[in-house]
Description:
With 75 residues, the chain is mainly alpha-helical. The protein is built from four helices and two strands; from the N terminus they run ααααββ. Helices cover 53% and strands 11% of the residues. Pfam families: HTH_3.
Amino acid sequence: MELAPEQCRAARGLLNWTQEHLAERAGISRSTVRDFERHRHVLHRGTESMLVQTLQEAGIMLLPPGEHGPGVRIR
């Protein structure tokens, strides 16, 4: 699943996580999260996988794009 910057921000909001907290949990730099969420660059596949896995392990469900675009839910 491709992670959208908006999904990343929304997921952090549901979890009440800062960019720094997500970065630490995923094992990546805060600047990577910041720049991705600001549409400054796309993620490498491995980095994207690490973010998705971290969010899913925290209880986030990433919803694929559909009629209303990509979404986020918490389990």
